[in-house]
Amino acid sequence: MTASHMMKAVVFERYGAPEILSLREVPVPVPSKGEVRVRVHATTVNRTDTATLRAHPFFARAMTGLLRPKMQTLGMDFAGQIDMAGEGQTRFRTGDRVFGLSPDLFGAHAEYLCLPADGAIAHIPGDLPYDQAVVGEGGWYADGTTGLLSGGARCLIYGASGAIGTAAVQLAKAKGAHVVAVVGTRHLDLARDLGADRIVNYETEDFTATDERFDVVLDAVGKTSYFRCRPLLKKDGVFAATDLGPGWSNILLGTLYGIAGSGRVRVPFPQDAPGFIQRLADLMAQGRFRGVFDRSYPLGEIVEAFRYVEAGQKTGIVTLTIR
Ligand SMILES: NC(=O)c1ccc[n+]([C@@H]2O[C@H](COP(=O)([O-])OP(=O)(O)OC[C@H]3O[C@@H](n4cnc5c(N)ncnc54)[C@H](OP(=O)(O)O)[C@@H]3O)[C@@H](O)[C@H]2O)c1
After folding, report:
1. Given this model, what pLDDT does residue 201 score?
2. Which end of the chain has fewer CB atoms surrounding its CB within 10 Å, N or C?
């Protein structure tokens, strides 16, 4: 294989800590019929990547591989240029600037990525730089919850400063909801900029000490619980979470309420990534959605990037620049 058929990619062959990730030369993938190849310019390191690396929670192995990971390269978000358009698709041409998600096979922590042309991929709106177009992962998880909202609904977002929380505030506002955002002191201005109608500082106030009642309370960072938030819910209100909850309570209660048919507690698994990415592209083009970015790492500092994201203190999105 010649050097031009090789690319740099971050590889992992077993589950474990960030230190097992290694930057290697691997063959450049070739698009199959109906696929496109993207020359990746920017990607992200996010909580889905860190959880998949460690196979946490354990049952996620049912999707990612029981003993060893099915995929060898992580990276769900990508932004780049179409470098080769396979036969049988007319949606993209070589040179098109695109962004999207690779939710099943990952693979974006690499110089090239192949995916179906009818997958979760869309044109980047206007001249938005690649490193500001890697906005899919947090938004997709947020969409599972904000999809429950309609115009005029009241929504409280706990932890509105992470990748999911910053996206949730904007998606909820785009749906016409009234949004209360709960964040720490350093993120008060950010929550205001994102359009929250009221902001509560969890470091100095008790966010449950209010007479306001909500259609949806979203725990976007896995730091509160249904029992704490229950008094905030309207009679038919929904508590949604992105994490297991204390003692797996969100999974347990979600299952019980699901069986009972009320859906009062939910851990929504995001659906329809292709449809979501197109809606996101439209919202970005209309100036109604933007990524919130924390910091950027070069591909060679992948271990540091994973360690930082795992610490759970990032503001919005951490990017990885490939070129
Ligand atoms: N299993 C999976 O595949 C998967 C995938 C995606 C996400 N998730 C889960 O979804 C959650 C959110 O993901 P994310 O990427 O949005 O998180 P993230 O970006 O890592 O969230 C970090 C933010 O949380 C805030 N925060 C930390 N402690 C807080 C607290 N006690 N109360 C309120 N805010 C707090 C931090 O701000 P301050 O320091 O200012 O508080 C920081 O801005 C995580 O729990 C993650 O595990 C799971």
Report:
1. 98
2. N
